[in-house]
Amino acid sequence: MEVSMDPLFLAWSYSRRRKLQQCSDICTKILQENPYDQAAWSLKTRALTEMVYIDEVEVDQEGIAEMMLDESSIAQVARPGTSLRLPGTSQGGGPTPAVRPMTQSGRPITGFVRPSTQSGRPGTMEQAIKTPRTASTARPVTSASGRFIRLGTASMLTNPEGPFINLSRLNLAKYSQKPNLSRTLFEYIFHHENDVKNALDLAAQATEHAQFKDWWWKVQLGKCYYRLGLYREAEKQFRSALNHQEVVDTYLYLAKLYQRLDQPITALNLFKQGLDHFPGEVTLLTGIARIHEEMNNIASATEYYKDVLKQDNTHVEAIACIGSNHFYTDQPEIALRFYRRLLQMGVYNCQLYNNLGLCCFYAQQYDMTLSSFERALALVANDEEQADVWYNIGHVAVGIGDLVLAYQCFKLALAFNNDHAEAYNNLAVLELRKGRIEQSKALLQTAASLSPHMYEPHFNLSILSEKIGDLQSSYTAALKSEDAFPEHVDTQQLLRQLRQHFAAL
User: Fold this and answer.
1) Which pLDDT does position 135 carry in this prediction?
2) Residue 130: which pLDDT band, with cuts at 50, 70 and 90?
3) What share of the chain is helix, strand, coil (3-state, %, to 5)?
4) 80-84, long-range: CB within 8 Å, 24+ apart, which pairs?
5) Ordered DSSP codes for 357-419
6) For the segment 334-377, what is each residue's pLDDT rounded down to a tens digit?
7) DSSP 8-state class, residue 505
8) Which among 119, 126, 346, 360 could disulfide-bond with 365, CB atoms 3.0 to 4.6 Å apart, if both were Cys?
9) How many whole angstroms separate alpha carbon 425 and alpha carbon 438?
10) Residue 434 CB neighbours (<10 A)
11) Using N-to-C axis directions, what is the helix angle for 215-227 and 248-260, rounded to 10°?
């Protein structure tokens, strides 16, 4: 006679091994036989939640709606070094756009893609729509709430007959008094069903039942308020939770809230306060480094990333950011060591081989350069990555003087990504060398319209216009170049010459 394992114990075992669908199926069978089995019900809600769970600390993308229709007032002219939204408010020590490329929001490109990396505050709606906001898509994030709704509808597929729990018939007051059920139910409503209003009701009643002393419920209330855009109410809940219990996650939620309110100095102070209670906590150190990096204070960011590596020497983000910083400060050999370390750790993707190829080229290890780029091309996931790799191979070709190869590479980059402003700019320079002035001018104008935050196309267009005698266009383009990069000496000289021309007229 075969002895079978208790179904509930088997379901629990599946849950621990992250086989969530099997766990859910077994719990469904148990509940069909006994609909009032609280253990199976609780385990099934846990399994369904885990399937769609997203860590709220990390994922935070501002959509166009949040950016353009934001009613929270900020200082229009923030003091230098106090705002994440205004470009150019760095505390010095940041690289210039001549050395390190800039994003549209006026910050240097980071070594690691994060949700907040490419966000910024565009000046106009048109600019906001044109700006790619995520690492994987050229379409801007339309709204943060849209992502949560899509997750909710996808999660319905876990139960073809309809939702597992009918929230409209749920007596939240009854469940809020059962601590062992209310927490799993809250996470199910918040993450799986994405019904923030009901989640907020349950959290408020459960907090009341716990006599306002349970820090966990206060954090959940704060998360609900944050999702609803009520940042000051969320701040009160997170602060109150910290008074009851010091938890790293609460510090991270609160810091994320201050960054959304554009208060980086307050967020930095909070992280440092957290480090007093949790010395050497990697997530807090990383948070400080990210804020310094976003404020263009690269030297401080690198110091904190080094502190992160002292605590956790396999931290991919810290290694990548320090590597990219060394590369842009003219130390490709040291950057190469960091990227090789990532390779040894098992990171195996197109971006890493692309960076290795560039480091090898600038460190004059030419034998490795092309093989790295070949690997990168074999690992590309989408057309944007393909375009970037071909663009970099074009750079290598320019460096070794093979302009025919360079021309073909930039053409290939544009074939894969028609909005690649840098490739348009470099192609224009090559066209000009061939004496095709009109084509060169058209390409520069395209590059300038695609990336108004880059100074190179504006400056090149200004030089070209001045040479063919169109001084007015030259002056307009030079002014745009100056806006993008005020310290650029050549632009200043050109503007002085043009002003002298106009004065003589």
Assistant:
1) 42
2) low
3) 65, 0, 35
4) 81/265, 81/295, 81/297, 82/264, 82/265, 83/262, 83/264, 84/259, 84/262, 84/264, 84/291, 84/294, 84/295
5) HHHHHHTT-HHHHHHHHHHHHHT--SHHHHHHHHHHHHHHHHHHT-HHHHHHHHHHHHHH-TT
6) 999 999 999 999 989 999 999 999 999 999 998 899 999 999 99
7) -
8) 360
9) 14
10) 11
11) 20
CA distance 208 to 204: 6
Kind and range of the H or E element at 78?
Answer: none
The burial of 292, by beta-carbon neighbours within 10 Å (0-12 exposed, 13-18 middle, 19 or more buried), is given as buried
Closest CA to 319 of 367, 350, 356: 356
Beta partners for residue 108, in sequence order: 102
Q: What is the pLDDT of residue 142?
A: 45
Q: For the purposes of burial, counting CB atoms within 10 Å of the CB of 161, is it exposed (0-12), middle (13-18) or buried (19 or more)?
A: exposed
Helix orientation angle between 421-433 and 456-467, rounded to the nearest 10 degrees: 30
Q: Does this model's pTM top 0.85? A: no
Confirm if 179 and 185 have CB atoms less than 8 A apart. no
Neighbouring C-alpha atoms within 13 Å toward the C-beta of 414: 17
One-letter amino acid of 393: I
Nearest to 250 by CA among 230, 233, 270, 231: 270
pLDDT in tens, 256-295: 999 988 889 999 999 999 999 999 999 999 999 999 988 8
Q: Could you tell me which residues are beta bridge partners of residue 102? A: 108
Instruction: Look at residues 99, 128, 101, 105 and name the one whose alpha carbon lies nearest to residue 118.
Output: 105
Q: Which of 35, 16, 51 is nearest to 159 (CA)?
A: 51
- pLDDT, the chain, mean: 84
Q: Are 298 and 93 in contact (CB under 8 A)?
A: yes
Rounded-to-integer distance, Cα 447 and Cα 461, Å: 10
Residue of 344, 326, 345 lying closest to 335 (CA atoms): 326
Q: Are 199 and 185 in contact (CB under 8 A)?
A: no
Q: What's the 3-state SS for 92-113?
A: CCCCCCCCCCECCCCCECCCCC
